[in-house]
Amino acid sequence: MIKSLYAGVTGLRNHQTKMDVIGNNVSNVNTVGYKSQRVLFKDLYYQTLSSAVAASANKGGLNPMQLGYGSAIASIDVLHTRSGIQTTDVVTDLYISGDGYFQVVSGSGEVNYTRVGNFHFDENGNLVDANGYFVCGGVPSIEEPITALAPIKIDELSKYSELSIGLDGSISAINSDTGMIEVLAQIGLVKFVNPNGLSLQGNQYLKQTQSSGEPTYAKPGTKATGSIISNGLEMSNVDLSKELTDMIITQRGFQANSRIITTSDEILQELVNIKR
Prior knowledge:
- This protein has helices at residues 2-27, 240-272; strands at residues 37-43, 46-50, 65-68, 71-78, 85-87, 93-97, 102-105, 111-114, 117-118, 120-121, 127-128, 134-138, 150-151, 160-165, 170-175, 181-187, 189-191, 199-202, 205-207, 216-218, 227-230, 232-234.
- It is an alpha+beta fold.
């Protein structure tokens, strides 16, 4: 009877974790670039009460008898499915129409990756994100073969107007001195063999791990990466109807495991009361 108590406890713990993940997903339903998560369960080890027996000439075979000990968390996965575009009419808001990540780097050299392209130019001509990290690419363009990306900085940015960003990530503007259109820089993208292996860092950032593999650098639209669409941001991929349905299922699962514990406790109480 004690075994059912422990099995019920593992069920409660796991369903609480799943509810935590659902709550985080619902909280970020309108967070740009957010990727929803899911929780998968697995069964724990089994006690073998009797082993399998092979069939013989005089007797048929017997199946094993095993008693389980509850459940555990198998994985908490990030669903990297691409979501739709949210139009912003800001030229430096960028949406990746396909696979790939922007590379951003801090002043101390810390490298992160993101799908959120809400960028702007600072007073020194650096292309930065909302957290002040430098967006990487090439100036005036990305040269092949691409072995690394560098922070984008445009000198004398004040003399340029009518800024635009192309599908290949190229940043163009009109030079007020000459009246000619010039290509000033090109934003690069990074692709990983296993994007599910990237580590969530918060602030819409991801970080490379041993599981994700080494980054592959590319011009947007090449090497199986998506093109860059200006004037928009990627929306959250949270399916609110699915999350609310999962919430109901998780709540019922929690209640069922609670009933396992209370019922087991009542049976133990009956055993204690046999001798009065």
